[in-house]
From TrEMBL:
Alphabetic keyword roster: Disulfide bond, EGF-like domain, Membrane, Repeat, Signal, Transmembrane, Transmembrane helix
Gene: CNTNAP3
UniProt-listed Gene3D superfamilies: 2.60.120.1000, 2.60.120.200, Galactose-binding domain-like, Laminin
Residue span(s) of domain Fibrinogen C-terminal: 584-630
The protein's name: Contactin-associated protein-like 3
Pfam families (alphabetical): F5_F8_type_C, Laminin_G_2
Cystines in this chain: 930-957
Biological classification of the source: Eukaryota, Metazoa, Chordata, Craniata, Vertebrata
Chief location bin: membrane
Length: 1250
């Protein structure tokens, strides 16, 4: 996740509404006095009234006179009840009733407030929740406390829903207290300068707080400078507040020296917004309204050592160091404080600490601009045209997030044409259509769906058509036909259902957003008269408010995903983030190399995301898929580093930079079972410790920047190398080889394995200042093995048993992932409860997994159904996610099920109980079985540790082969481990962790490998006899066998495989002179062999080929290259008796063989053979992997090769050969002709740690 975005979400304080107890009302220490009941009736007004006795003056709580409350003339969504508190008050709570003794009550309403009775603002209980639950009868009182409270003079209650058997009826009360404030008004050319008291002690932090309101998009709020260009500037830019911090450190990289933090949106709405700025030396807290960002400066930057002057509202002209263009603030400040000092009060009193530049006033006027909100695509505003005029002139301002929508349409008089103005792809397009002529179009503006106010004016007169957007004009001249007369009606934002054509009913739909400053025919339109029914008509509008909200503030797009929005929703672009999903929450990559391994992935470079959906980004590592999975993280210093070069100069120590950040490295190390890092010292008259007092002159620095002086094989601070502990140093007087101080190169090689100290970030060697002293070192990569969370599991043995953990914190995004296996038909995996909210995952039925939750919008349930039962005692993987956009559930590789979140519903999941795993709070519907690798929002839970102390639950869970045994391929057998599985490749022609690595050998001319199943005279087997040989002795009769081999050659004829018996029976696989495959079975010494020609093609073509032979009695199936299959029937017999040996390569005069086999055997085989297997025998593995029980003989040049499938063919044996084998003509077992590399210096190795 992006750090700044994470900080915003982490510190988010949402508005909420909850039932309020009246017991606290009237407390002298509380701001909750009733405000409405003491007001005169004239303070209440409304949109309409049913009768004089239903007027707004009767709307006080518990009032019974008149009709007992307010009711409008018509019950619809355009009605409102308004209160004038007389002055700005702090409002902390509201209460409602229905009409006294009636069936009239409101079941849901919204609350709006204003300072001047115009430009209303909607109060939101949460970011997406504005409605309040109302009453369920006429006389009960429903209270709601407002958190946080707001300050306003005017309040409006707007009914949204009411009793369907009655009408709208309301009695209300408002609670709060007096609000006092100091205000200052800037005219866009003025500023206010405050000079700090120089005699006072330097503050440990600066705290600046204020409120502001403006209708301008840009302006400086405050500015303070220091030396060398250091400054702190708070500026409004396009309706957003930008805090600019410049440390003044020219030696710092640009991103660290200059930092900008951005908060807020649509702040030019002429409503009050609060700002809090806290500067604590290098730490900055920046809050706008309810959203906070934190910043920690680097490189010793401080923001308190600035000049004594702070300017508000602008930058004084004598300040020349600020190079960016700026505009003074135009609007009002309220309650401006610096470290508790009331700056406005000082200015009003003309104290010497303050200086006013330009004209400022100490009151704040209320601009009477009336915006109009188009709430839906069916909204419209119909206004009359300027009748009789021979021109068209319309102007307005608009703001929207939608990229498309109808803004204006009008049918001109006398059939002279139609005018349509649309927003399309963020651009304006004006079209004029006239009968018999093609449409004339003008396109103007770009990027107009950015939420900013944009001005539009269009005119059509004579032959000239023009449109102007934000002061830039586009026009079409001398192209109009005939007289143009203004239409009778102009439709803005959409059309009534009864109107069609001329842009109405088109594919773009209606406009959603806000309009203001509308004029038609050069005459300004007053929307209030429209609201009162005196002008035009409308549908689905909110008049006197702009209801546009920024759905990307706060941004719910995680991990750096880019947020974009429309009127009613937002979306996240997750490209290049490494995450997926509606909010970029789900990790794209596996969490460890262990997880990659058990997907069947081979060794290689992979991205791993150690904390899953947590804040850490994916890291690139090398995964070594051995029996114990290894993770390797490289750094920039893998080469040999000389500490003292030949010219005698000693370089400064260099910090190692890894391909992963320190946080990522710590996550990798914490997950691992074991980590280590090899460090090799090379020294010539250079010591690790001083001669006399043992003071270290060499050391290394670990992850936490702590210096360590211990070396291989020792405990911390023992200062002994491995040879010192083992007693085999070159000089027994010293504990390290280098400390012998020899005038020759020696070395100490150590392995550091204390996880809490790794990785090594710096190595220092200081003893190089003497004549002829020289040293060097080499640091290997960080190596870690295992994954202590992937196999972390617990077994639940009773339905009433469970594990409990602290409350799950997943307010806006929550994901749960785990593996389970069971034979039970149902059971709850995970449950966490709140007061009303909850989250639960369960096996609902044998073939159903269900994810259910409630965040205040009612129960939501997502279910994945499987065609096969889940209770099959095999591991199944579950991943559930809930965010503000949707909920999703996936089980194994089944299609994911998704359910969208309700529009403008509750978004915050509020839980307060313990998290239950394997059971529920009621101890019912508990889970029976195993749960493994449980993670919540990327955080692994230690099930095994908790299970050791919980009755009915056991740590660990056996039986992994049933789920992962399929990973053992090519005849490998799955073996159970406490944590995971191991593949036993003993009876496979392959090796590697999953028996996937083919064992290949290059055969030179005349070479051979002979695998002897037994000696002819060995008819009995002792207790130490080979079990493999026991499968093949002369009393054994084979009624069937499986043989496989792969090869690459250009030689023909060639002998690929020859299996002989003591009775002159045999199997031979050869390539005929034309390269075609031939298989010969002779299962009766008295009969001629069965010869089968498989004329697929010439297989001696230098390409890789695979052959599989499967015999069952007389039926032989042959498969070539995994697709060409044939079946033949033997006539020479059905049993293969007394198998003696298997031969590869050259075979000289095999007894009883036919002439073609003899000819191919004499020619032998030249090329690459791999994956040779006959039954359980793997002759190449026996030859190339010594130590097995079977006797094998190698003759001639046979060399271990890379995979035949990847080789360049027999024409390049030197490239393929990696280990030559040579043997005498009767020798048994492999002989390695190479010699190990031996270093000339003494070296010792050891492992430090547990």
């Amino acid at each position: 996740m992006d750090r700044a975005a994470g900080a915003v979400l982490g510190m988010l304080f949402l508005l909420s509404a909850r039932p309020w107890s009246t017991a606290a009302a009237g407390s002298p220490y509380s701001c909750d006095a009733p405000l409405a009941s003491t007001l005169p009736r004239a303070s209440f007004s409304s949109s309409s009234e049913l009768s004089s006795s239903h007027g707004p003056g009767f709307a006080s709580l518990n009032r019974r006179d008149g009709a007992g409350g307010w009711s409008p003339r018509v019950s619809d969504k355009y009605q409102w009840l308004q209160i004038d508190l007389g002055e700005r008050m702090e409002v902390t709570a509201v209460a409602t009733q229905g009409g006294y003794g009636s069936s009239d009550w409101v079941t849901s309403y919204v609350l709006m407030f204003s300072d001047g009775g115009r430009n209303w603002k909607l109060y939101r209980r949460e970011e997406s929740i504005s409605g309040f639950p109302g009453n369920t009868n006429a006389d009960s009182v429903v209270h709601y406390r407002l958190e946080p409270p707001f300050e306003a003079r005017f309040l409006r209650f707007l009914p949204v829903a009411w009793n369907p058997k009655g009408r709208i009826g309301m009695r209300i009360e408002v609670y709060g207290c007096a609000y006092r404030s100091e205000v200052v008004n800037f005219d866009g050319k003025s500023s206010l300068i405050y000079t700090l008291n120089q005699k006072s002690a330097s503050p440990t932090k600066d705290v600046i707080s204020l409120k502001f309101k403006t209708r301008q998009t840009d302006g400086i709020l405050l500015h303070r400078e220091g030396q060398n260009g250091k400054h702190v500037t708070l500026e409004l830019v396009k309706g957003r507040l930008i805090l600019s911090l410049n440390s003044g450190h020219a030696n710092l990289p640009s991103p660290d020296a200059r930092v900008t933090l951005t908060l807020g949106s649509l702040l030019d709405d002429q409503h009050w917004h609060s700002v809090l700025l806290e500067l604590l030396n290098a730490h900055v807290n920046f809050t706008v309204d309810r959203h906070t960002q934190h910043f920690q400066a680097k490189g010793g930057s401080r923001y308190l050592d600035l000049d004594d002057e702070i300017s508000f509202g602008g930058i004084p002209g004598h300040r020349k160091s600020v190079v960016f263009p700026h505009k003074n603030f135009h609007g009002c400040f309220e309650n401006l404080y610096y470290n508790g000092v009331d700056i406005i009060d000082l200015s009003k009193k003309r104290k010497p600490q303050t200086l006013v530049v330009g004209n400022v006033s100490y009151s704040c006027s209320h601009l009477q601009i009336v915006p109009v909100t188009f709430l839906s695509s069916s909204s419209y505003l119909a206004l009359p045209g300027a009748s009789g005029e021979d021109k068209v002139s319309v102007a307005f301002q608009f703001r929207t997030w939608n990229r498309a929508g109808l803004l204006l349409t009008s049918q001109l008089k006398h059939g002279s044409g139609a005018l349509v103005l649309v927003l399309n792809d963020g651009k304006l397009k004006l079209s004029l259509s006239q009968p018999g002529h093609p449409s004339r179009d003008i396109t103007a503006g770009a990027g107009l769906s950015d939420g900013q106010w944009h001005s539009v004016s269009l005119s059509l007169k004579g032959s000239h058509l023009s449109v102007m957007v934000d002061g830039e004009a586009a026009s079409v001249a001398h192209s109009l036909r005939g007289r143009i007369d203004s239409g009778d009606t102009y439709y803005l934002g959409g059309c009534p259902d009864s109107v069609s054509g001329s842009g109405c009913g088109g594919p773009l739909g209606g406009f959603q957003g806000c309009l203001r400053l509308i004029s038609v025919g050069d005459k300004a339109v007053d929307p209030i008269t429209v609201q009162q029914g005196a002008l035009g008509s409308f549908r689905d509008l909110q008049i006197d408010t702009c209801g546009l909200t920024d759905r990307c503030l706060p941004s719910y797009c995680e991990h750096g995903g880019e947020c974009s929005q429309s009127w009613d929703t937002f979306s996240c672009d997750c490209a290049h983030t490494g995450y997926l999903g509606a909010t970029c929450h789900s990790p794209l990559y596996e969490q460890s190399c262990e997880a990659h391994k058990h997907r069947g992935d081979s060794s290689g470079l992979y991205y791993i995301d150690s904390d899953g959906s947590g804040p850490l980004e994916p890291a690139l590592v090398y995964c070594n898929m051995t029996d114990t999975t290894g993770t390797s993280v490289q750094h920039n210093g893998s080469h040999l580093a000389r500490v003292k070069s030949s010219d005698g100069e000693s370089p400064h120590p260099v910090a190692f930079k890894y391909t992963a950040s320190m946080d990522q490295l710590q996550a990798i190390i914490d997950r691992a079972d074991h980590c280590q890092q090899e460090l090799a010292f090379y020294c010539k008259k250079s010591r690790l410790s001083a001669r006399h007092d043992g003071t270290p002159v060499s050391w290394w620095v670990g992850r936490t920047n702590e210096t360590h002086t211990y070396w291989g094989g020792s405990l911390p601070d023992a200062q002994k190398c491995a040879c010192g502990l083992q007693g085999n140093c070159l000089d027994s007087q010293y504990y390290c080889n280098c400390d012998a101080d020899r005038n020759e190169w020696t070395s100490d090689t150590i392995v550091l394995s204390h996880k809490e100290h790794l990785p090594v970030i710096q190595v220092v060697m200081r003893d190089t200042g003497r004549p002829h002293s020289e040293a060097a070192y080499a640091l290997g990569p960080l190596l870690c093995w295992g994954d202590n969370s992937f196999w972390n599991s617990a077994s639940f043995n009773t339905e009433t048993s469970y594990l409990h953990f602290p409350t799950f914190r997943g307010e806006f995004s929550a994901d749960v992932s785990f593996f389970f296996k069971t034979t039970a038909p149902s059971g709850v995996f995970v449950e966490n409860l709140g007061i009303t909210d909850f989250i639960r995952l369960e096996l609902h039925a044998p073939s159903e997994v269900t994810f259910s939750f409630d965040v205040g919008n009612g129960r939501c349930e997502v279910t994945v159904r499987s065609p096969t039962p889940f209770n099959d005692n095999q591991w199944h993987h579950v991943r559930a996610e809930r965010n503000v956009k949707e909920a999703s559930l996936q089980v194994d590789q089944l299609p994911s099920e998704t359910q969208a979140a309700p529009a403008d519903g509750h978004a915050r999941l509020q839980l307060n109980s313990q998290l239950f795993v394997g059971g529920t709070a009621t101890r019912q519907r508990g889970f029976l079985g195993c749960i493994r690798s449980l993670r919540l929002n990327g955080l692994a839970l230690d099930l095994e540790e908790r299970a050791t102390m919980t009755p009915g639950v056991e740590p660990g869970c056996p039986g992994h082969c049933s789920s992962y045994g399929h990973l053992c391929r090519n005849g490998g057998r799955c073996r159970e481990r406490h944590r995971g599985i191991a593949c036993d490749c003993t009876f496979s022609a392959y090796d590697g962790p999953f028996c996937e690595n083919e064992i290949s050998a290059y055969f030179g001319s005349g070479s051979s490998v002979i695998y002897n199943f037994q000696e002819h005279h060995n008819h009995t087997f002792g207790k130490n006899a080979s079990s493999l040989a026991a499968l093949f002795h002369e009393d054994l009769t084979l009624t069937g066998e499986m043989a496989t081999l792969s090869f690459r050659t250009t030689g023909a004829p060639s002998l690929l495989l020859y299996v002989s018996s003591f009775y002159e029976e045999y199997l031979s696989v050869i390539l005929a002179p034309n390269g075609s495959l031939q298989i010969r079975y002779k299962l009766d010494r008295n009969q001629a062999p069965d010869v089968f020609n498989f004329g697929f093609k010439n297989l001696a073509d230098g390409q890789f080929h695979q052959v599989k032979i499967h015999r069952e009695a007389a039926m032989v199936s042959v498969e070539v290259n995994q697709n060409a299959r044939r079946q033949v029937i033997l006539s020479s017999g059905t049993e293969f008796n007394a198998v003696k040996s298997l031969m590869l390569g050259t075979v000289l005069e095999p007894p009883g063989a036919d002439p073609d086999t003899l000819r191919a055997g004499a020619r032998g085989f030249t090329g690459c053979l791999s994956a040779v297997r006959f039954g359980p025998a793997a002759p190449l593995k026996a030859a190339l992997r010594p130590g097995g029980p079977a006797p094998v003989t190698v003759r001639g040049h046979v060399a271990a090769a890379a995979r035949c499938a990847e080789g360049a063919g027999p024409g390049a044996p030197a490239r393929e050969a990696t280990r030559p084998l040579a043997g005498g003509a009767g020798g048994s077992g492999p002989t390695d002709g190479g010699q190990p590399l031996v270093t000339a210096d003494g070296r010792d190795s050891a492992v430090i740690g547990d």
